[in-house]
Amino acid sequence: MQQLVAQLKKRLADFIEQRDDLMLLSISAVNDAPMVLQTLRDLEQSGSPDLFLLFAHDFLSPGPFVTEALKHLKEQHRLADEMLAQEGREPLPPFPDDLLSESLAASDRLRGAIDYARSLLPREGGHRLVWAMIPLKIADRRSYLRLVSSLVPWQGLQPWMRSVRLIFRADVNFRQAAPDLMNAPRVRVQRVDFSAGAIARELEREVVNEELPLDERMPSLLALAYMDYAHNRAEQAVTKFNLLLGYAQQTGNLQLQAIAINGLGDVAHRAGDPGQAQHWYECALVPAAEAEQPHLLATVVRNLADVAFRLERYPEAEQYYDGLDKLHAHLLDPEGKAQALELRGVCQEKRGAYEQAIASWQSAATLCRNIGLPELLRSNLERLAELHQRLGREQQFREVEAELRETATQEVR
Fold first, then answer.
1. How far is CA 377 from CA 21, 159, 371, 409, in A?
2. CA distance 398 to 403
3. pTM, 2 dp
4. How far from each other are the two terminal CA atoms of the chain, in whole angstroms?
5. Residue 369 neighbours by CB under 8 Å, 6+ apart
């Protein structure tokens, strides 16, 4: 993943630095577009002398799209003028309000906006304008690409294009709507791919890259192991977790030992073998505790509690949830503590310890009230109401029901 981000950053930086191409078409799926924006922001904040103007509003049709960009540019102009006034410096050239008129063609207004923004660059120092439009939603692909095409130097470079770098997002099917853009003059096309498949391929390259030290390759192997687990590729996941475990044992890495063993337990649990899962989780307890990693220890204890509950070993599960309650208190995690208290109460109810279950749920409800966890509060109150009613405790039942109604009313508000 880090390598993919580094590659994207380098490609964007190379485009900004080069002098031959005016436009970069960034071909990306909706989920990958924010990564392009964030990388451009990182370049802007890394001490770049260039002027970055980034736009991410949706494209519905050309006119409103350009108007929204102009409004954003005008607001940036206003803020910059305020800052210059505070510093006693000359204001910027006046904003061209005539560009806001939608009676003008959207393409002309967009060119005018870019030309105006370019005029704000300092005259000395080789500064550039980086104008990037990365809409997440493109409702009308053809009209969007026509607008983009209007900025291509089909007839050669124009004065407004000097010191300008344009970056536009296009979706992966843009060639069907605008095939000429693929080979347009001074336009380069780059694919941005942060899909699960692309990440997996990059991780695999890192794992087999013998130029990297083993300790730098192991995190990639761990990520691949959990990707296999997430996609229910049990055999591949087990192989990778075992490789991680062997490395961790050789190097004395207790944290990685616990993670790898816990991963083997996760695979067994998903495969419907809670007994084997419990074995692995119990094995993970020792290195997790010795590693002094309370978050990791809490994960293992929660897994043990869930498996014991699934096996209907309620006293055992209760003990684990009780330990989990204490761990989350140590971690200053009130939500995790409330969840542990609720599940401890469920175990107590299952074995007939009704008073203890009520006490657990009351403790959880108090915590939820104090810190504002309405969903967990409602869950614990519902458990209390059901048990009070079953035990024939009408007064307590009515009190809890009244609080449930009040909680529901507050949520509506």
1. 59, 64, 10, 14
2. 9
3. 0.63
4. 42
5. 377
